[in-house]
């Protein structure tokens, strides 16, 4: 029980990332996925949904920049039922919507949580928030998510880990995606691993190819751990 | 009133969702009605004296303590476009969150509970000003300024317009802004006697039509 929260059950909505909902229940874990355009954020979200949907009650918020393609892709792929996917419009500034002015995203997340809290299917366990593809400085506010993944890919240049920037250096998990493409674009995975280690010290890094049999499994394991820690807290 | 508090509320970076909205500019740009700084100035002037004035008066009335639910209905009646009513409530909900975090008050909590999906943004803005200890003129100024600063920022992004030109447009509108804010506050002061019918109901049909069309686009940069 969290005694430091004073929300009455019929009071107005939460303000920020309060761990307890106005109805007194602990809310879902919120994980953000950021990273440059095309690095594989939506593909990772889709794979995570497939890997986790049987064990966790999931929902996704997408932040497309000027289309609804990410939400449409997830719907088409049927990784989750449509009522579990919500799209937020970001007005040409995807990083603003996840960092400087998080209100639209908070509302989407809270609306999803509220719908599922009331629908008898049981409350949500996990909400994934995908940022619109942006630059290396885009990170999620702690007011919006509890943990964040930064997804880069080997084809975007193997010097990205060396360049660092807030996403690469501070994300709770750095995902280097599309390792299957490394031989074709001449990316040196060892060098990327070394540089990432240098930038991130003890923070974890996962190299993955969603085209390989292992796919998203390491990232899914990390999410499971996070969720276990969240519910135990 | 605290002038510094006014600056906090009026800051374009106040996290209340405005950055994702163009105030009709995206539709006007696509229709070829805004192509540069000169058109932007005319667009902003038109918006300021129509929906800007209405928003400023609603905000001033809320800052004076008029029943926000009554003002919310008055705002609905003054917003013929369904798309703009939706946008105004969305922005109102976002403004509510930011206001309750920055200047918490029982009045804000009460409105948040009564309108969990959001009241019209100018009403919430006015109540936020009230909670911050600001007066009706202050609230009117913020609403009036927002009605033109939003489109100006959006046009910088949409047309790659020189940001100095866009800011100069806003600076030239200062006398108009002063007049609109004063008129709005004066109308709001008449509400206790005359009711909400004392509030202006000017409208810009092209903004309404543009907003309806814009809401149906499949690909757009701004939410409205
Ligand atoms: N070869 C290969 N392609 C991948 C992998 N992961 C994703 N892709 C492909 O990369 C392309 C972009 O992936 P998305 O998941 O849409 O990337 P995104 O980061 O969501 O892109 P934005 O949302 O536009 O920023 C798609 O064609 C994916 O199928 C991978 O591990 N290997
Ligand atoms: Mg995507």
Automatic annotation (TrEMBL), chain A:
Localization annotation: Cytoplasm
Q: Which residues form the CobW/HypB/UreG nucleotide-binding domain?
A: 31-206
List keywords of the entry alphabetically.
Chaperone, Cytoplasm, GTP-binding, Nickel insertion, Nucleotide-binding
Where mainly located? cytoplasm
For the keyword Calcium, the answer is: no
Q: Which InterPro entries match?
A: CobW/HypB/UreG_nucleotide-bd, P-loop_NTPase, UreG
Q: Which family does it belong to?
A: Belongs to the SIMIBI class G3E GTPase family. UreG subfamily.
Instruction: Outline the subunit composition.
Output: Homodimer. UreD, UreF and UreG form a complex that acts as a GTP-hydrolysis-dependent molecular chaperone, activating the urease apoprotein by helping to assemble the nickel containing metallocenter of UreC. The UreE protein probably delivers the nickel.
**Which NCBIfam families does the protein's record reference?**
ureG
The molecule here is called: Urease accessory protein UreG
Taxonomic source organism: Streptomyces solicavernae
Which gene is transcribed and translated to give this protein?
Answer: ureG
Automatic annotation (TrEMBL), chain B:
Role according to the record: Required for maturation of urease via the functional incorporation of the urease nickel metallocenter.
Q: How does it assemble?
A: UreD, UreF and UreG form a complex that acts as a GTP-hydrolysis-dependent molecular chaperone, activating the urease apoprotein by helping to assemble the nickel containing metallocenter of UreC. The UreE protein probably delivers the nickel.
Can you say what this protein is called? Urease accessory protein UreF
Xref: Pfam families: UreF (PF01730)
Which family does the UniProt entry place this protein in? Belongs to the UreF family.
InterPro entries per record: UreF, UreF_sf
Compartment list: Cytoplasm
Which superkingdom, per the lineage?
Bacteria
Could you tell me the gene encoding this protein?
A: ureF
């Amino acid at each position: 029980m969290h005694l430091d929260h004073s929300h009455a059950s019929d009071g107005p909505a939460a303000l920020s990332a309060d761990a307890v909902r106005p109805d007194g229940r602990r809310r879902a874990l919120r994980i953000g996925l950021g990273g440059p355009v095309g690095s594989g954020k939506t593909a990772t979200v889709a794979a995570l949904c497939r890997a986790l949907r049987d064990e966790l009650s999931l929902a996704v918020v997408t932040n497309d920049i000027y289309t609804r393609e990410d939400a449409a892709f997830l719907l088409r792929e049927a990784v989750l039922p449509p009522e579990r996917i919500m799209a937020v419009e970001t007005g040409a500034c995807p990083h603003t919507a996840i960092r400087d002015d998080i209100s639209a995203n908070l509302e989407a997340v809270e609306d999803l949580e509220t719908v599922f809290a009331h629908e008898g299917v049981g409350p949500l366990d996990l909400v994934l928030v995908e940022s619109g593809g942006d630059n290396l400085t885009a990170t999620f506010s702690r007011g919006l998510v509890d943990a964040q993944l930064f997804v880069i890919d080997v084809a975007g240049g193997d010097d990205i880990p060396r360049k660092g920037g807030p996403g690469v250096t501070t994300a709770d998990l750095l995902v280097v995606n599309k390792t299957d493409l490394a031989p074709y674009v001449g990316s040196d995975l060892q060098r990327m691993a070394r540089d990432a280690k240098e930038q991130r010290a003890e923070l974890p890094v996962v190299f993955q190819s969603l085209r390989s049999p292992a796919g998203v499994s390491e990232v899914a394991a990390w999410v499971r751990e996070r969720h276990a820690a969240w519910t135990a807290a | 009133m605290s002038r510094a508090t006014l600056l906090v509320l009026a800051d374009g970076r106040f996290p209340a969702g405005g950055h994702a909205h163009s105030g009709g500019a995206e539709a006007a740009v696509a229709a070829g009605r805004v192509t540069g700084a000169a058109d932007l100035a005319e667009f902003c002037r038109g918006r300021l004296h129509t929906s800007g004035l209405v928003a400023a008066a609603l905000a001033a009335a809320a800052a004076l303590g008029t029943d926000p639910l009554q003002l919310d209905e008055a705002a609905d009646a003054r917003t013929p476009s369904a798309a703009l009513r939706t946008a105004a409530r969305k922005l109102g909900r976002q403004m509510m969150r930011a206001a309750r975090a920055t200047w918490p008050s029982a009045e804000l909590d009460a409105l948040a509970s009564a309108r969990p999906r959001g009241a019209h943004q100018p009403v919430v803005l006015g109540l936020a000003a009230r909670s911050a200890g600001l007066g009706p003129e202050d609230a009117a100024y913020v609403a009036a300024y927002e009605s033109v600063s939003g489109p100006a920022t959006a046009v910088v992004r949409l047309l790659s317009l020189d940001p100095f030109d866009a800011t100069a447009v806003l600076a030239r509108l200062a006398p108009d802004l002063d007049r609109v804010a004063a008129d709005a506050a004066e109308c709001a002061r008449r509400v206790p006697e005359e009711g909400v019918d004392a509030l202006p109901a000017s409208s810009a049909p092209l903004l309404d039509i543009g907003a309806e069309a814009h809401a149906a686009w499949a690909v757009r940069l701004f939410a409205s």
